[in-house]
Amino acid sequence: MYIPTQFKVKDQQQILGFMQRYSFATLVTAADRLPVATHLPFHIELREGTVILSSHFAKANPQAQKLVDHPALVIFNEPHAYIAPKNYDKQENVPTWNYIAVHAYGKATILHQETQQLELMEKMISTYDQDYLEQWAGLSMAFKLKMLKGIVAFEITINDLQAQQKLSQNKTENERRKIVNDLENSKHSTEQDLAFYMKHT
User: Which CATH code fits 5-170?
Assistant: First the structure.
């Protein structure tokens, strides 16, 4: 990802926090010189200093069949917003787009063992629906194993983490105040979220 110096994020905890907040991401791989992508929820964790992303495909998804053969890229992005020239001090200016994005590159491994797959399911439920944990615990093992037959569970060990916050850092304080005010008063929650990040950058 092209990242101008002033927009680069280096703090790993900050990056992980963003990924965990916006954890529905896009997994991109290439097979036969054709990029393919699937949109998936991810469980994100730091394991012995290494970022590990976990998720699962529907077994019928052809991307699952070639996942381990190629490097994987997972893209986390949100929030974003159009920034109007009316917020700038000078008349001669152009619009732009502010956004936050993380590109996570790594090597995928298929989780073949049922114990690994069940552990992943419990991690995903704990992340996205803790109220379901009790119900999940009460389900029969036969039902759970039948469900596992319909998925391909995997982990991606991340070896390159690139993060960018393009939040008008190259603008004046007065311009940034006007942009934040504009975004905070938007009817769109993504733009309101972006204003929060701008205020804390």
Answer: 2.30.110.10
